[in-house]
Design goal:
twelve-stranded antiparallel beta sheet, disordered C terminus, two-stranded antiparallel ribbon, alpha+beta
Length: about 350
């Protein structure tokens, strides 16, 4: 019998012919082919990002009590996960908290029982499907049932009973899903980012507008869109990529012209130096069906912004007198985690031992 249980991860859907730029094809091909939303997270890359480490350090300086949270989080569950993909066929009219057609897929290290213990922390019951063990997660009141299955020591899936069984069927038959152009091409271009998502229309404006303001322009853009994609990478700098996919190249050119006009108005209008600088960094490109928008923020600037925001927050806390300020420097020490900011400080919590 193959060992199977499911681990929370993300939905995956991919295409048969073109290889993915970054997303794992063996992961995304577990999804059904008619999804209209796919999202991926490169957990291991984000966890090792120097910018994330800097953000966590500033957060700990501002709120020392977070030492406990970070100390507990580091051993698990992130140590089990490398990549997560979430795929779904979204229905705007659905009231379900967990869509029936949602699938969460994960790639990681599932050889031991550690991740199963996390998944089944609220209770599980075991079933079997096609020689795979499927875990039925005990639902909370009012929530839909969720199933989990480990496909092997590297891949796991989670979702409704139907979606998990479908993923197992595709795994057993080695079936590759073929998606719509908007989904397939979006994954190929954006799948290499640390965080990425791709969605297919129809897109509608939240409400009708009258006149010629930004709302009208947004409505016109939405009517021409067939898909949207977003990618974020946290490397030595932060890179953003936004893609708007139109039904035709002609419509994409119209969206490009409207976006250029809006950008020119924003540059000419009033605004803070920071917002002006952000606008200057935006780069627009028209290519076939796509309007591609990109931006890069240098590492030094990101770190400076993190320090500035953390300093302002500490000043606010000191002014309010609501939290005791931590020492300016606290040497790293072995044996436990110290929590500052409490009535009797410091409080030491024993370190987690593997």
């Amino acid at each position: 019998m193959q060992r199977t249980a499911l681990a929370p991860a993300l939905v995956a859907a991919l295409f048969l012919s073109s290889p993915l730029a970054g997303a794992d094809p063996a992961l995304v091909n577990l999804s059904r082919p008619d999804v209209n939303f796919v999202m991926g997270v490169e957990v291991s890359r984000i966890a090792s990002s120097p910018l994330l480490a800097a953000a966590m350090e500033e957060a700990q300086q501002t709120k020392p009590g977070l030492d406990t949270f970070f100390g507990l989080l580091a051993p698990h569950p992130l140590r089990y996960l490398n990549e997560i993909v979430i795929a779904a066929k979204l229905d705007p009219g659905s009231d379900s908290k967990r869509p029936e057609n949602l699938l969460i897929m994960a790639r990681g290290a599932f050889a031991d029982s550690g991740f199963s213990d996390i998944v089944c922390s609220q209770g599980c019951a075991a079933d079997e499907y096609r020689e795979f063990q499927v875990l039925r997660l005990t639902p909370k009141p009012g929530e839909d049932p969720m199933h989990f299955a480990f496909l092997d020591s590297q891949y796991a899936v989670m979702g409704s009973p139907r979606e998990v069984q479908g993923a197992i069927d595709r795994r057993v038959t080695e079936t590759n899903s073929v998606f719509s152009d908007a989904i397939q091409e979006g994954i190929a271009r954006l799948g290499g980012h640390d965080i990425w998502l791709v969605a297919k229309g129809v897109f509608q404006d939240a409400g009708s507008t009258n006149g010629n303001g930004p709302g009208m322009m947004a409505e016109q853009v939405a009517s021409k869109m067939d898909g949207v994609g977003l990618g974020i990478t946290l490397g030595k700098d932060v890179r953003f990529a936004l893609e708007l996919r139109s039904h035709t190249p002609e419509q994409a050119k119209q969206v490009f012209d409207m976006a250029n006009g809006l950008l020119a108005l924003m540059k000419a209008g009033e605004g803070s130096p920071e917002s002006k600088q952000m606008i200057e960094r935006l780069s627009l490109r028209h290519e076939g069906h796509l309007l591609a928008v990109s931006m890069r923020i240098p590492e030094a600037e990101v770190r400076a912004q993190l320090r500035e925001k953390a300093a302002k927050h500490r000043e606010q806390l000191a002014a309010d007198g609501s939290v005791s300020a931590p020492p300016a420097t606290r040497p790293r020490r072995e044996g436990g985690i110290r929590i500052y900011g409490l009535k009797d400080e410091p409080v030491e919590v024993p370190a987690h031992k593997n």
